[in-house]
TrEMBL record:
TPR repeat spans: 136-169, 170-203, 305-338, 475-508, 509-542, 543-576, 743-776
Entry keyword set: Lipoprotein, Membrane, Repeat, TPR repeat, Transmembrane, Transmembrane helix
Domain of life: Bacteria
Entry-linked InterPro entries: CellSynth/LPSAsmb/PSIAsmb (IPR051012), PEP-CTERM_TPR_PrsT (IPR014266), TPR-like_helical_dom_sf (IPR011990), TPR_rpt (IPR019734)
NCBIfam families in the record: PEP_TPR_lipo
Keyword hit for Lipoprotein: yes
One Pfam family in the UniProt entry: TPR_19
Protein name per UniProt: Putative PEP-CTERM system TPR-repeat lipoprotein
Gene3D superfamilies on file: Tetratricopeptide repeat domain
Organism of origin: Geoalkalibacter ferrihydriticus
Sequence intervals crossing the membrane: 12-28
Amino acid sequence: MTEFQYGEDTALLRRIIVLLLVGFFLYGCGSKTKEEMLQEGIKLTEEGNVTGGVILFRNALEKDPNFVEARFHLAKGYIDLERYPQAERELQKVKLQDPSNTRIDVFLAKAYIETDRPDEALEQVETYLASHPPTAEALVIQGRAYLVKKDFPQSMEAFRSAKEIDPQTLDAYLGMASVYLAEGHIESALPVLETAAELHPSDKRALLLIARIVMARGQLDEGLEIWKKVLAIDSRDIDALYQVGLLTINSGDLDEGSKFAEDLIRIHPNRPEGFQLRGLILYEKQEWENAADAFQRSLSHGGNLQSHYFLGLCQYRQGRYEVALSEFNRALDIDPDFTPARMMLASTLLVQNRLDDAIFQGQTAVASDPRNAWAHNVLGTALLMKGRYEEGMASLELATQLDPGLATVHLKKGAVSLGMGDIQRAESAMLDAVQANPDALESRLSLALFYVRQGQSDKAIASLQEGLANNEQDAFIYYQLANLYFRQERFDDGAEALEQAKSAKPDFLAPYFSLGVFHLAKAEPEKAVEEYKGILKHAPDNFQALTLLANSQDQMGNRQEAIATFKKAVDVDPVRGTLVYAYNLIRRGENPKALRVVSEGLGKAPNAPLLLEMRGKIHAEQRDYPAAIADFRNLSQTSPDKGLPLLAQTLVASGQNDEAVALGLNLISSNPEAPFGYLLLSAIHNASDNSDKAYAVLDEGLPKVNDPRPLSMNKAGLLRGQGKNAQALEVYGNVLKDHEDFFPAVYGKASIHHQQGEYAEASRLYRQAVELNPNFVPALNDLAYLLTGQNQVKDGLDFAMRAFRLAPTDPAIMDTLGYALYRDGQSDRALGLLESAAQSLPDNPTVLYHLALVYHDLGRSGQALQTLESSLAKGDFPEKKQARELLNNLNGAQ
């Protein structure tokens, strides 16, 4: 089954104003001479309206393409707008039209330096200085070029010469300070920056550097005052608002810090910093679910490794270890040397008893930061648990030397005994740790985890129950108890424990979410609705709760309530909310309504890539190719990796093959080492039913690109599409020879073996893919379906539940879980899931067949008969023979 997939920035008002201005200028320019346009453009630029000036310069050039002065000012305008490639193009034209004009050398040099081409910048500056008296502007560019090349003496000489020519040149001071900082001479940089700040009190750039130096020294109070000076100059400065907010939080004033977070969100709604600040405040308040939602919103607007790290911490705090691992890994993808993320990754792996992985991460952290006590502690614990006693003890001893208060003696003794295989002594030591501090949640959870690892769930439950103290901390114990009960399939006890967790700490949101998933799995959407409403009482803007509530209301048939909730989700997050609402409409076959909703979303979040992608796909589905092409062209401006393939695909669909091919060829010629151009051109040929050319393009690119994996994976996909499974397996195998942990290739191999009926090998590979990426829903779902079909129902049900927790509204996941429940003898729980799946996928014969099985098992022969007939009318599917046999049996029984 394949489902049509749909996939985020200037404000709408600004776009309208610019369009009106353009219209005004075009209307007014028709009767003006080119010289008048030039002078008006210069005036607008001097007044700060550079965009307006650029429009007039372009209009002047439309009247006379050889109007050199207009082209020169157009290039300068592009530089002011930081559109350096366009500036360079126009300056090169000026050079061709007027070779004697040496003014352009300085501006060309500036364009080169801004596009990281220092050698070309130096060549232009030196050409200029050879025939002109030195200017501060030219020398500053020369200094910047030498700085990029790390020729610090030459760079400093150029900046000093610029300052001597014009002692007021701020860029000279900033350049000198940058050289000092690059050389590590912070004390020399500070007085230069302080002088610059005094000379230019209304320019914030020197203050920004001073603030960062002071903060790096740990002088937080002084740093706070400097950041406030920056805000006095520019009250909208993102860095200053963020840093003042952070420092305020650090002082313990969360309410004041919250004001800065909300100011950032209000002033810069499409930036990540405000949401990240909000998340940090909520994290300090231990509102893990709300904090996670804030960090997710930060990431939807760009975010950074800190957002991934803290999102991982939120998930870890709630016991969602697979999700936490994913976020810590994403932080490390951005910066492999970010030790906190690596240590939390190791700690999470340790909690999951993945000892080899935890040891590797601990060793990596220790190599990066040898004096990190936390790293030595985690590494030592993992080594001991692995049975490597001497190495583990050495790491733990070093950890306690670096930080004597890091770990309790009793827990360390327990880990040592466990590592030696002395289970009795390990249990005794951990019990001592709990008795030494009965209120310490960490020690009690460690003891419970120990029992779980030993397969003694009853002891784990008893130890947790002993820690109940009739206070808020009970909520976390009840939550862990619920997880243990669910492992034992004591579902009612698990649900009761979650209810008790809610009672102990009503604003602890994790139990509400768990109960929501529990009730959805039992086909009790009305009870799930109450859980999500409970979350919203404490966190009215919790996006995840709003979307789950809307889908549950829709599942109950409360369409108007669902629509109202979807609209609230849109208000909270215009991009993600619009996507979720539109997906719902598309699944209901209401594409025109979905199109209207997405267009309204683009009104709130202009040019949001995900919304442009979705709207373009809806247009393409409706064969409105001009509208789709327009959306995909806009998308290509900000997200070429998304927009260009869709643009090419739509061009082919609309019969514009030559334009599509030209698009791919241009991308390859502009960057022959990047896989993207080859992938695009191959897809174009494939869409044009020319598979030979599609393969040829990929084969041409494989030896040239910097990372051949995308081309190899694409080639394997083409081979599979033509039924050439053996060749596809060979391609996947070649990828894995060089990248053994590349889980998409592992999953690809598993899918082929599954398709060919080689179930043992498919199962092994699916499990390997899930180990490499525990949150990879397709592998979890396919493994669950395979195991269920092979009568390994309990294991299949476990993997189906894992997939469902990650994607509870995906109808394909609902189908797999429903089928696994049916095979486990739980047709009453399977019914609601399969009915919901069939409602979302009414043309999928396998889903209908599974629903018919449940109807039959529950004694609803009439509904089973009707559903089977509908299933068989949809065409071929793997279970068609069994469906026909069941239909014949039902007809014979009547």
